[in-house]
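[SOLVED] Predicted holo structure with pyridoxal-5'-phosphate

Edit: marking solved, answer below. Original request kept for reference. I posted the sequence and ligand SMILES and asked for the 3D complex as C-alpha cells.
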Amino acid sequence: MTEPTRRQLEDWDRNIVWHPFTQMAEYEPLIVDRADGCTVVDLDGREYLDGVSSLWCNVHGHRHPRLDQAIRDQLDRVAHVTALGASNPTTIKLAKRLVDLTPPGLNHVFFSDDGATAVEVAVKMALQYWRQRPDPRPEKTCYVALANAYHGDTLGSVSVGGVARFHAMFEPLLFETLRAPSPDTYRLPANVTPEEALGYYLNAVEQILSEHHARIAAMVVEPLVQAAAGMIVHPGGYLAGIRELTRRYDVLLIADEVAVGMGRTGRMFACEHEEVTPDLLCLAKGLTGGYLPMAATLTGDEIWRAFLGGYAESKTFFHGHTYGGNPLSAAAALATLDVFDEEATLANLGPKIARLGEHLQRMASLPQVGDVRQCGLIGAVELVRDRAAKTPYPWEEKRGMRVCDHARAKGVLLRPLGNVLVIMPPLAVSLEELDRICEAVADGIRAATRENLTHTDTPDA
Ligand SMILES: *Cc1c(COP(=O)(O)O)cnc(C)c1O
C-alpha cells in the first residue's frame, strides 16, 4: 500500500473513522502526527500545548524516555500474556506496587483495560460479594450514585452514570440506581448556605441509605471532583462523610479514581486527602502515564475471600477481558510509578497548583465567568450567560467549544465540558507552559464572549 496523501487521510478520518463523542457531520480533522513532552504536533508541523493531557490521561508528558524504554524492553520479552489462569512478571510486579501505594487494606487487584471496565468490574464484584459472603444478602442489587455522575460508557457504568444528555437514551437497558444530589457548592439549593452545604449533601445521602440500605449493594462516587460533570469540586469532608455513612448502613463504597487518581489532585490518590479506604477502588486513565489501555479495580480481603471456594462451588468471578493485565501496559504503568519517584512529580506539583490558582483567580473577574474551580492540577472555568442568576448558556450554542477554537488558533489544545473550560495539562507541565495554556484560555474567553454578545445576547433584542 502506498502512503496515503494528507488529503486522503483527512477524507478517511472524516468518513471512515467514527470518533467518540464527536458529531461526525461537523467533524474537522485534527491529525496529530507526533508529540514530545507537553507539545503535540499535527501533520502540518503545527505545535500545540496539550492542555487536556490527551483527555486527562497523560501524566509525565508524551514520549517520556523512561516510559518509551520500558515498553521497548517489555517488547523484547513478550507483548501479551493472557491473565485467564496465567501471568507474567511485569503484571505481578505492578499489582504488588499498586497494593503498596493505595490506601491501606486494598490488597487485591483485578486488571481490565479502561475506566468503564474498572467500574463495571467493581459493580459486578459488589453484587456477587453480597451473594457469596458467609452471611449472604442476595437482595442487595441496587446502587447509589451522584447526579451528573460519569463512570464510563459500558451499560453498567452508564447505569450508575447520571449525565442525562449522554445517558437518558439508554434508559431501557439500564439497571436501577438511586440518585443522590451532586455536592455542588456553586449551584446550591436556594435555602442552603455554603456553610450548610456539607451537612445538606450528606443528609441527602443518609436519607437514601436509611430508607433503602437493605437492597443497596454499593454507592459509587468520584472522590473530591466529579470530572465529566463539569469539574464539580465537592465540599471538604464529603468523601469521609459518605465513607462513614456507607459503613454505618452496610453498603460498599466504590471510589472511581479514573480521572482524579495518579497524582492529579496533588496526592497520588484522591482518597488520601480524607484518609478514606474505599471497598473498591477504580483506576485507569493516568495509570499507564497515558500510554496504553489499562485499568485496575482494587479491593480488600473480605471481598476477595467471598470469591474463594472449590471450583464446583462456582464462586469464581466470571468476568474478564482478553487484554486485561497486558504486560506492555503493565510495563508502562510501572515506569509511570518509577518516574513519580525519580522526578519527585508530586513534590514538584505545589508551585504549579499555586500558579494555576493565580490564573483562575484572574479569570474569575471576566464578565461571563460564573465560577472557577480547582483541585490540584485540575482547573475549571464555568461560563454563564448571567452571572447573578448563574444562568447557563444553552448547550447548543457551544460556547465552551468556541473558546477552545480560539485557544487552538493560539497553539493550545483543550476540550471543554459544555460551558466549562477544563485546564488539565500533564503533571509534567512547566510553569511557563502552564502560563501559556491559561493565557490562551483567558484570551479565548474574552474573544468568544464578545462574539456571543453581538449576535445572541443583545439585551434589547
Ligand atoms: C474517563 C472516566 C471513566 C471512563 O474511562 P474510559 O477509560 O474512558 O472507559 C470512568 N470514570 C471516570 C471518573 C472518568 O473520568
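OP edit: DSSP finds 14 helices and 16 strands in the chain. Thanks to everyone who chimed in.
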